[in-house]
Every structure is written in structure tokens, then in C-alpha cells.
Amino acid sequence: MESRSTQTLFRLFFALKPSPLIARQTDHFAETIAQGARRIAVDHQHVTLAISSDYVDYPNAVIKALIRAGTGVMAEPFDLRLDQLSIGNRSAALRPSHAMPLLNALQRQIVAGMKEAGVMLRPGWSFSPHQTLFYRNGRSEVRPVDGFSWHVDQFMLVCSHVGRTHHETLATWGLNGSGQYSLF
Fold first, then answer.
1. How distant is the alpha carbon of residue 16 from its chain centre?
2. Which 3 state secondary structure label does DSSP give 97?
3. Bridge partner list, 47
4. Kind plus residue range of the DSSP H or E element containing 62
5. pLDDT tens-digit profile of 124-164?
6. Could you give the 3-state DSSP secondary structure of residue 19?
7. How far is CA 99 from the centre of its chain?
8. How far apart are CA 57 and CA 11, in angstroms?
């Protein structure tokens, strides 16, 4: 039996993922400012839309409920621009410098679907759109950057195997106003 410190936890979240090209460009940018900090893996880069609590056992029933929640989302595609670098005392992230009404509408629909499916958001979590680049300790700063943009035409449900650096894509839905989805 695994000890508590090495036991895998399962964290479910809805996310937007940049294209592989944008993810590599973002990683290259992070490398120039990370000063040795461990960067987020290219294939793990994302913007979290909603997140669950952690589960000790693989949460099959919760996954099914969240897939139902995601299937009901009807949202329009949009362009996302992350053009502000926000470095805190624990992490560095890219954020949008302007309000994004379509992003916010998508996020609200996902949260409403989660609530209807009986799955609550992680306690204390609130939506603040960002893409984490790396974790580290240091001084804080916020500054504009040329930024990274992509056309968001899908969102996904991901299961993070916490502590194992493994992200499992569970479902992907197209943003076309119809709530259409496909399982991977």
C-alpha cells in the first residue's frame, strides 16, 4: 500500500489547451525568464476553466457526471490572447490584459453544468484566467508582453494524476454553439 505522501490523487478540471505550436512558443518564452525553475511541460500547458477537489480513488462516477456537464455546454469559439506576464511569489503565468466576455460565458456555463451534475468546484478556487509557465519563489511583477494568441474552438475535461506528472484527456467538446462532443 502506498503511503499518503506517495499516493496518487486525482484532480479533474475543464481546460483550454493551446495548439502544440503555441505551447512550444510559450515554453520557449518561459525558458528565457524561468532562471532555472522547472517549467510546465509543453503538453500540460492549459488555462483552467473549472476544477474539482482531489480524489483518493479514481473518480469514475464524478467523471461521468462531468462529461454530462460538458456535453450540455453551448458556447461560441473565440480568440484568446495572453499578453500580460504575471509573476507572483510562487509562480509565473500569462494572462489576458482585457476582459474576455466569451471566455467568461464559457466558464460560467461549465460551472453551472457542474453544479447541475452535483459536482462542486474545489473549495476556495475562483476563476482567474491564466496559463502557468513555471513555479518558483521570487519577487512579484506584472508587465505586458507581446503575448500568445490562439483560436479557441474546443475545451476539454482532464484528469491530473497529481504527483505523477500525468494528464489524461477524458473528453473534448467543440465550441460551435451546439454542445457537440467527442470522447478520446
1. 6
2. coil
3. 16
4. helix 60-71
5. 999 999 999 999 887 888 999 998 999 999 999 999 998 77
6. coil
7. 18
8. 10
